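queue> pop job 88
queue> type: inverse folding (structure -> sequence)
queue> payload:
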């Protein structure tokens, strides 16, 4: 049985920031902030500041320490509202220990400091689009997101990158086997990576449950059940130093603009900077997402966008339209976030010749089960707002998407080398 978020709220004493949902799906939406109704005149003519502002930090500490239903509703709603407006969120107290994150970056540096001959022992198979093994600089080409959001393999828009990666998954996933270095080359790397992968999954489970609650789904485990521990992917990424002049002239790009073919992505980043997200509704305009110690960045992927029925329509982000004016409730919420990695902030540490600092990041890609149908969840459509996308399986969608990253590959599931 599906219950609306409004019904869930009526059963609880919920007093923090909420979105009041009218029973008439075609009536105006009313925004309530701590029991005070916000009128049109209380908002500025332009939403410029709102669009450019970083998202709030969603604190999961109550969730990870036995939160009440009221607290879980507050966290879930704040997470959904933030992703609705921005496509991503900062999350603090997410459950992955800070010491473990610090250790993960140390292992990442150890791996990429290895001689190229050692790293090439685990080179990704050229006939597979599975994200497993080592990718040398420039091999993984990011499709131009604004052209290929649907994962159409016939579109040949690519952006040259300048990073190297090591991708891994669960050893339980026999269809996409990992490629591990011999133990003597980097002792302890496999053991730690496996442990870190597991801790990221634990954090993911809480996030998926919070999203379900925030979307108004009675069964908070429903979205989680569409996923499985062995199917996700963990990536260690290294962006070597590069001349800023080469980036300015577009001769090289650290990572081109793209969206993720995931449900969600959890990103741990160092303090270098350079990550940018596109402003929703303003194509090609990006804002920097500065690293905040102790947080991860969670962004919505294309799969979750399809489940929640596409781009948000509740808020109008336009200087010509006031934020509350003529708003009709539409139950589609989450948008896939377009992001890229550009030049880091320019400061004295760039050094002679204006060379960028090294950048390390660790994304954890959360993928649906390949046979699960990607179709609009019942809570995210109605008669006036029907599903925007035809049903498909994740495997069908991901196959085309993977071929965009690796054009020479012929298969989706298994590496043949």
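queue> result:
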């Amino acid at each position: 049985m599906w219950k609306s978020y409004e019904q869930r709220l009526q059963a609880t004493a919920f007093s923090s920031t909420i979105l009041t949902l009218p029973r008439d799906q075609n009536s105006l939406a009313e925004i309530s902030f701590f029991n005070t109704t916000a009128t049109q005149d209380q908002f500025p003519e332009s939403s410029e500041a709102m669009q450019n502002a970083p998202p709030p930090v969603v604190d999961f500490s109550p969730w990870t320490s036995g939160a009440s239903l009221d607290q879980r509703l507050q966290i879930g709603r704040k997470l959904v509202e933030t992703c609705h407006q921005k496509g991503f969120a900062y999350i603090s107290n997410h459950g992955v220990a800070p010491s473990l994150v610090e250790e993960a970056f140390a292992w990442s540096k150890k791996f990429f400091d290895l001689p190229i001959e050692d790293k090439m022992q685990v080179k990704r198979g050229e006939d597979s689009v599975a994200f497993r093994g080592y990718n040398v600089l420039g091999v993984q080409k990011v499709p131009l997101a604004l052209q290929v959001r649907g994962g159409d393999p016939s579109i040949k828009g690519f952006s040259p990158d300048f990073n190297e990666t090591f991708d891994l998954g669960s050893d339980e996933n026999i269809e996409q086997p990992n490629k591990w270095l011999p133990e003597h080359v980097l002792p302890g790397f496999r053991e730690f990576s496996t442990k870190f992968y597991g801790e990221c999954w634990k954090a993911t489970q809480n996030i998926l449950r919070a999203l379900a609650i925030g979307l108004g789904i009675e069964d908070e485990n429903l979205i989680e059940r569409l996923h499985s521990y062995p199917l996700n992917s963990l990536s260690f990424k290294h962006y070597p130093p590069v001349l800023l002049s080469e980036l300015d002239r577009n001769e090289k790009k650290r990572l081109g603009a793209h969206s993720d073919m995931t449900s969600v992505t959890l990103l741990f980043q160092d303090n270098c900077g350079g990550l940018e997200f596109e402003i929703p509704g303003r194509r090609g305009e990006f804002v920097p997402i500065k690293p905040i110690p102790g947080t991860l960045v969670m962004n919505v992927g294309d799969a979750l966008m399809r489940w929640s029925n596409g781009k948000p329509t509740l808020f109008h982000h336009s200087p010509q339209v006031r934020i509350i004016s003529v708003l009709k409730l539409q139950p589609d919420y989450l948008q896939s976030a377009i992001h890229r990695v550009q030049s880091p902030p320019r400061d004295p540490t760039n050094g002679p010749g204006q060379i960028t600092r090294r950048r390390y990041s660790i994304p954890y890609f959360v993928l649906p089960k390949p046979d699960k149908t990607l179709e609009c969840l019942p809570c995210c459509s109605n008669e006036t707002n029907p599903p925007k996308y035809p049903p498909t399986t994740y495997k069908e969608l991901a196959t085309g998407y993977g071929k965009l990253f690796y054009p020479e590959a012929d298969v989706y599931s298994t590496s043949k080398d």
